[in-house]
Amino acid sequence: MAQSRLCTNCQVPLTSDDVGIYLKLVSLTARQFVCIDCLGVKLNCGREPIEKLIRYFRESGNCALFR
Description:
This is Inhibitor of sigma-G Gin. It comes from Paenibacillus cucumis. The chain is globular and about 30 Å long. The longest helix is centred in the last third of the chain and has 14 residues, at about 45-60. The chain has three helices and no strands. It is mostly helical. The mean pLDDT is about 95.
């Protein structure tokens, strides 16, 4: 059975977007992740700018983390 990843701050289940944006913005070698909401708090920018970046990376087609 596959183990789901949880946010290390708030324990919500993580999506592939949560993991991908954490890898892109924080560390490509990370083993533990936070959700988009907690990342927004950590980066002091909120959720919306992070969601815009995810859309940008997905639409650009240049980032393997968001294909």
